[in-house]
Amino acid sequence: RLDNEERILEDDGWWKLEDDLLGKFETQLRPDTSKTIISHNTSPDIPFDRSINPYKGCEHGCIYCYARPTHSYLGMSPGLDFETKIFFKENAAVLLERELRRQGYECKPIALGVNTDAYQPAEKELKITRSILEVLSAYNHPVSIITKSSRILNDLDILAPMGQKSLVHVMISVTTLDPNLARSMEPRASSPANRLATLKMLHEAGVPTGVLASPMIPAINDNELEAILEASAEVGAVQAGYLLLRLPFELKQLFIDWLRVHFPDRENRVLNLIRQCREGSLNTSGFGVRMRGTGPYAEILNK
Domain Elp3/MiaA/NifB-like radical SAM core: where (predicted)? Predict the structure, then answer.
């Protein structure tokens, strides 16, 4: 979108991938040479003003991920490239400690993994997120984490002591309790049952937890909102939130293609309900409305 070149939208094969074919598409891990680690924002509808994303791209392959179009800035596809060409910030811990030691640094909670999951499969090998937590723990720096991966439990030895000091808060993303729906929407993320079990284990370890039922997709998973909240509360979640599906830039067509494959009978209903919440469009970007939409349907969800 930023280069002087023409882009023609075409199927890159992402939605045809079955789990037994994934081996044909090897994940490529590439170092990110960014010179800074903390991103700042002034958005009035986001509850944090700084964040760290250890990775660009995400192997989880969630069809609804609003971060997919960011791979276009790298000259890559928001489809298959986003899922298989993963950039990692190898010097994240060094950059973070340098920032924390900078004169005049203002200590406020850092949100970890808000664009792409900090505990995606690459973390098992690279441990970038763990290195970040080690620095934050050493400096008694507050952090919040959003993930849909049970892999976060690998860092419980760091998170539990931080939880005792009220330095960490974890939100587990649960979009559905239906494993079949989860498998089609989030093919390489932890199962719904594993996410609830992760919530329970974090809670029992003294880590403050919550559930993020996001995104809510009209006529796909919206009927599960109350059940998700109830199931999460039963295992220790003390906070909850949700966001309405967002479809920025190239994500619109990717999502439509997915609908046509998995829910062809619901395509028109889903898209029409989204338009009702998005002022006649499939996406709105204005502060105050982009997260939850407007109109009768959006108001029902909000209740």
Answer: 48-275
DSSP 92-140: HHHHHHHHHTSTT----PEEESSSS-TTSTHHHHH-HHHHHHHHHHHTT
pLDDT, tens digit, for every residue of 172-205? 999 999 999 999 999 999 999 999 999 999 999 9
Q: Quick one: DSSP state of residue 85?
A: E
Q: What's the CA angle centered on 51, arms 230 and 174, to 5 degrees?
A: 20
Domain locations along the chain? 17-246
Which DSSP state fits 67? T
Helix locations, the chain, DSSP H: 80-84, 92-100, 122-126, 128-138, 156-164, 179-185, 192-204, 225-234, 251-262, 267-277, 296-302
Read off the tokens for 163: 């939880």
Fold of 17-246: TIM Barrel (3.20.20)
> In this structure, what token pair is assigned to residue 55?
């990775």
User: pTM value?
Assistant: 0.90
- Take residue 50 and report the two structure tokens written for it: 């700084």
